[in-house]
Amino acid sequence: MQKTQKCRAFLKWAGGKYNLVDAISLHLQDATQLVEPFVGAGSVFLNTQYSHYKLNDINADLINLYKLLQSDHGRFITDARSLFTSQTNQRDSYISLRQQFNQSSDEYERALLFLYLNRHGYNGLCRYNLSGKFNVPFGSYKKPYFPEAELHYFAEKSQFAEFSCTGYQQIIQQATAGSVIYCDPPYVPLSKTASFTSYARQGFDLDDQAQLANLAEQAQQRGVTVVISNHDTTWTRKIYQQAELHSLQVNRSISQNGAGRGKVAELFAVYQPQ
């Protein structure tokens, strides 16, 4: 079978899985449906071939954008393109459009601006303050890329997907035999200062990490395969001790300066039905 070219997500995403798709796919068994409780930018969805997908994320702006692309991508792409100009790639314009996003309750407007902010904001971060306001600073890029081809591909593939915005617990508990679940939760921090919990208004703490492992064990008992990605640490190895563990060294920026780039151990916990 000829290997198809990998497809990039149209969003920039901290912790995106584009470079790990091949390694992850080795642990995803054949099934009728792939379930992703933490879909993020969707690199695993975009680079696997299942007949159906159930894609969930706690970030309402993200899921709103995906649903709009699924239903009306032609209009959306045309309108989004108008936000990628030299005039909009200015700090004052960015701050103004970020304020417009934070004040808007219109789903279509928020989706357009979410894509704009993602591509023009610093490092493609997605971060909200405690009031739920998007607060990522301007990225100062020479010419932000407009991901037209990636948007079209996502819209095409989304016809095989069902999107939801709810807690990971419910999504995992609903999965039945014949499904495979891939979980990409916020990672356990490698240091006390590395915690990043402001992706959505709700954080994801160590209790959530442990609960996710318990839910994976329960799903395994129902005949569902579950694969979880996380940092390879003593603590994650302890909570995933019921799983088959696979470790991989990956390149990752582990601090804000270039000197902090290095190899980090990635852990895949695979819960395979007996």
SSE topology:
Blueprint: H1 21-25, E1 33-36, H2 43-46, E2 52-56, H3 60-81, H4 91-103, H5 107-120, H6 148-157, E3 161-164, H7 168-174, E4 179-183, H8 206-221, E5 225-231, H9 234-239, E6 244-253, E7 261-271
Parallel strand pairs: 1-2, 1-4, 2-3, 4-5
Antiparallel strand pairs: 5-7, 6-7
Please provide a written account of the structure:
The protein has 274 residues and is α/β, with parallel strands linked by helices. The protein has two domains: 18-59 and 165-271, Rossmann fold; 63-150, Adenine-specific Methyltransferase, Domain 2 (Adenine-specific Methyltransferase, domain 2, Orthogonal Bundle), CATH 1.10.1020. The chain contains nine helices and seven strands. The protein has helices spanning 21-25, 43-46, 60-81, 91-103, 107-120, 148-157, 168-174, 206-221, 234-239; strands spanning 33-36, 52-56, 161-164, 179-183, 225-231, 244-253, 261-271. Strands 3-2-1-4-5-7-6 form a seven-stranded mixed sheet, with helices on both faces. A hairpin with a 7-residue loop joins strand 6 (244-253) and strand 7. Helix 3 (60-81) packs across helix 6 (148-157). Mean pLDDT is 91; it is low at 195-201.
Sum up the structure in keywords:
274 residues; alpha/beta; Rossmann fold; Adenine-specific Methyltransferase, domain 2; 2 domains; 7-stranded mixed beta sheet; 9 helices
Summarize the entry for a quick read:
With 274 residues, the chain is an alpha/beta fold. The protein has helices at 21-25, 43-46, 60-81, 91-103, 107-120, 148-157, 168-174, 206-221, 234-239; strands at residues 33-36, 52-56, 161-164, 179-183, 225-231, 244-253, 261-271. Helix 3 crosses helix 6 (148-157), helix 4 (91-103) packs antiparallel against helix 5 and helix 7 packs parallel to helix 8.
